[in-house]
Each structure stands twice: as C-alpha cells, then as structure tokens.
Backbone:
C-alpha cells in the first residue's frame, strides 16, 4: 500500500483526543497531525502551563470545565455522527469515565475498553491487576492491602507504599520507600489515600515499559518497543531513556496479560528489572503513556495504527503484527523528556546543566521540543520562566 493511501480508510472518521493539557495528549495530537489527520481535542481545564493547546495540529478545541463530564460533552457534540469517531484517552481519569459509560458509547464510538462496563476500573486497582499478572505466570512483588496507618502484617522492610488506584489520594505523591517502621509511620502522616497497597521493595537494576495496542478483544497484541532508562532514581522512573524492539520473552508476558484482560486500545505495561535481571510486574496503564510519541518516532504512527487495526478487524480481517511495521522503522534510539529530566537530574544536583544540554543535543528525540510543532514547548518554558521571575 502506498504511504499516502495507508490511512485512507480512517480519514473520513472524526478523531477526538479526550485529555488534560499533558504531554501524553501532545504525543497523540502530533502523531495524528503529522499524517494529515487533524484531531478535535476535548480538554479538561486545569491550572497547567499551556502546552498541548498551542499545538498547530489541533483542529478544534473544546474545553471541559471542572464541573462537567467529558463523556457528556462528547455525546452532546458528536453522539449522532453518521460514521463512528475514534476517541483517544490519555489519562486514567478519562479512561475510568469512559469505561463506566461503556453501554452508551460502544455503538457510537471506537474507544478503549475491556468489552464490558466497569472492567477497566476494576483493573486499575493495583491489587486486581497484580492477581491477573500472577495468574499469567508472571512474578509480582509480595504485597498486602492496609488502611493508611495500619502496620504491615506479612511484609518485611523495606517496603513501598502505593495507592490502590491512580485516582485515589495523591497517586504518585502517596508513594514512599520505607526502610523501617519509623519511616513508614512518618510517611502515613503525609499520605492522603485512605487505603494503601504495600509491596516489598525490589532493588531494581532498571525498569522496562512496553508500549503497544490491542484489538479484537485483546486477541491481537502489537507491542513494538520497550523502554528502559539511562538515568534512574531510586523511587521512580527515569526521564532519559533508550528504546529498542520488544524482546520475545517480554512480549510473551505482555500478550498474556492483555489477552486475559480482553483489552482493546493503547496501553503501557511496566516491569521492574531486579538485580538478577528478572522481570517483576508493576502495572498496566490502559491508555497512552507519556512515552507514546516514541512509537511514532520509531516509525509506527501509534494512534493511527490502532485506529487502522480496529477498522480492519471490524471488517472481519485479523492483520498479523508485522503488518504494522513499515519501511523506515527505527530499531534503537534514545529519547528524553526535557522538563522532567531537568528537575530530576539538574535541579537535584546529580548532573550539571552543561551535561544536561549535551544529553539533550545527543538524544535522538525529545518529548517536548519538536521542530515541526514548536509552540507547545516555547509556551511551556516561557510560562515556567514567568513563574520563576514572579517568585
């Protein structure tokens, strides 16, 4: 198929990105825009530096106010389209809302789901998804669920605290590594989630994040790239990374989990790599991660390929995974999230600003800066500078 014709079957559909003003959504908007599909953006109004909304690839911007439900806005504006639009969700909040309204949406839109209402919400619970991974024969950390402040009954220190769902408490802000009971008690005074998942703290050599999509009830899983980190903080993920083709053993684990969930849509599956280089399951994000644009940079237009695969399957065909690997596919490259790495590496004193600039120039791609769409980056740094000056 000629390059200009590849996406002809999805060009007459509306493409709607449901999101906040985040880097997750920016990657999706840029990916679609680069192939001439100009999306509509339903953006929840938040107190963020304007970034995504400055993209030249946005065809129409519809604000969703704090007291409004994005699904209600979606149905109000696009509920009676003659051809089903594609909807791309970019955070857990959005995914949870769309999941709850599955029955209202399934005949009107293509969107991410697990074939019934409420299933994504169930799987966003870390205890539930860990049990799914364990049933697939994948190692999970030892864990227990407690009310915040309650001491662990089975685990030994060190432990890490996590919210059961990303929509609870402060999400990542409620995550603490606790080496003893005293540290745990002090952490609980700051944690806002009423319940916690406590896990054994696995000393990690690295992390592995796998980006991909699935269609046909999870029967076709395509996950071309895995990401690991060139700089990795003890208590979180890195912002400077290398990307390579997904290894066969990793792909096998990812495929089992996604099929078991019967998930259709774009996802990220995360693992720890322990000191013995054994994979330990962390979580599944049933939406685009911040790293989604790396797939497009690698030569596979992430959102468009999911839409294309969905359309092909609806017409009764099951395309093999190799159908989505095109000429120009990049096998290995480095990527950096500039603001995140600046805070994590420069402001913390781990590296000099000169080393950081060298790394920016040396990286194959940046998640914010894009010469074809520069205004989101310029807007972000300009407003960050203004806030710094006002202090």
Residues:
């Amino acid at each position: 198929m000629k390059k200009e014709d590849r996406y002809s079957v999805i060009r007459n559909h509306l493409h709607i990105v449901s999101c906040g003003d985040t880097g997750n959504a920016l990657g999706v908007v840029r990916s679609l825009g680069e192939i001439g599909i100009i999306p509509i953006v339903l953006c929840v109004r938040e107190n963020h530096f304007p970034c995504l909304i400055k993209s030249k690839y946005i065809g129409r911007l519809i604000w969703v106010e704090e007291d409004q439900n994005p699904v209600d806005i979606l149905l109000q504006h696009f509920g009676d389209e003659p051809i089903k639009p594609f909807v791309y969700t970019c955070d857990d909040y959005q995914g949870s809302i769309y999941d709850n309204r599955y029955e209202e949406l399934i005949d009107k839109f293509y969107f991410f789901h697990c074939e019934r209402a409420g299933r994504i919400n169930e799987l966003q619970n870390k205890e539930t998804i860990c049990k799914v991974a364990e049933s697939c024969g994948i190692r999970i950390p030892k864990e227990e669920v407690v009310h915040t402040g309650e001491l662990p009954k089975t685990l030994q220190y060190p432990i890490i605290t996590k919210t059961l769902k990303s929509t609870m408490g402060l999400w990542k802000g409620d995550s603490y590594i606790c080496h003893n009971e005293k540290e745990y008690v002090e952490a609980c005074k700051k944690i806002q989630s009423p319940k916690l998942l406590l896990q054994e703290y696995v000393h990690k050599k690295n992390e592995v994040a796998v980006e991909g999509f699935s269609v046909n009830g999870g029967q076709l899983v395509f996950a071309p790239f895995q990401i690991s980190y060139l700089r990795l903080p003890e208590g979180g993920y890195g912002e400077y990374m290398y990307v390579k083709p997904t290894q066969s053993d990793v792909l096998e684990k990812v495929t089992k989990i996604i099929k078991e969930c019967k998930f259709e849509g774009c996802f990220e599956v995360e693992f720890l790599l322990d000191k013995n280089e054994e994979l330990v399951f962390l979580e599944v994000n049933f939406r685009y991660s911040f790293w989604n644009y790396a797939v497009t940079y690698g030569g596979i237009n992430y959102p468009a390929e999911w839409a294309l695969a969905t359309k092909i399957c609806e017409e009764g065909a099951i395309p093999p995974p190799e159908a989505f690997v095109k000429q120009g596919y990049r096998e290995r490259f480095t990527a950096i999230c500039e603001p995140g790495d600046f805070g994590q590496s420069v402001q913390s004193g781990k590296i000099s600003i000169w080393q950081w600039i060298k790394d920016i120039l040396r990286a194959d791609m940046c998640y914010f800066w894009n010469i074809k769409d520069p205004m989101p980056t310029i807007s972000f740094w300009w407003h960050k500078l203004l806030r710094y000056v006002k202090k």
